[in-house]
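Lab notes, practical 5.
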Amino acid sequence: MTTVVKYSQWGGPSVLHVEQEDARAPGAGEVLIRQEAIGVNFVDTMFRNGTFKVGLPAVAGVEGAGTVEAVGPGISRFVVGDRVAYFFAPGSYATRRVASEDVLVKLPGDVSAETAATILTKGLTAWMAINAMAKPGAGDRVLVQGATGGVGNLLARWLRARGVTVIGTGSHHKLPALREAVDHAFAYDTAGLNDAIRTHAPDGVDIVYELVGATTFAATLSAIRNGGTIAVIGAASGGGAIDEADLARRGIRLVRGSTGQHVTKTTCRLPLTTCSQPGGTARSARSARENTRCPRPSRRMRIFSTVAATAR
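Output from the prediction step:
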């Protein structure tokens, strides 16, 4: 048996129900996982309210970690007892679940299931932002709107490890922690915020990572330089009003995307190029909270090790 949290209609939290059901045996290319931790992400609410459509009834959640309990025919990468994690595989709110081996990574021995389920989706989203949506280089000036959130904080620290000057915004009560992650920290409601940002980027920032949406988008448009890039990753406060003609006039590139689009089998097979300090000197995860480590054979696993190192 497995305990699951399911919904049979779109709506708010009240549509969620705890149920008991039989855990099916894994089929070809699948494994059965005894879950030790699950991730809770904002995107879960978007599945639940019908923004992202799935067949109903559905088990909530997309992220988790645990131990392989059984394997189906044709499995070659995993055996019973392996510790694994996954992201963006709907159906995670369960004590036991079946998942395709394609979505799984083996957990390094020094990464707990709780850590994996906490940061894998967020960390891979940060990886996507830096390596797929926009590609900042050393010396660039970047604004992270929502740098006090899980994705934003990881993203800000990762950018600084690459030699990028990071300006971050966030909630006023989180500013002390934000100052540890960015070069210049501001609350969303800072008086004269636009002028304050321009003090550190007189010509405007090269890239804005927009994780908030409607409440910060006016500041985003004010901060970005002509010819810069706005990477829209989230919209916690709703979508911002976008004047496509004005963006075109200013030569501003607007990019959207999801982790599921950018972290794929194809990208996971490419050589890993984010494993070193600016200048090319590799550092270990234990000695470098804000950088990476590189010894894993699978690209997705190496990316995960990078994420875990950044979060420590």
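Observations recorded by the TA: The longest strand covers residues 30-38. Confidence is low (pLDDT under 50) at residues 269-303.
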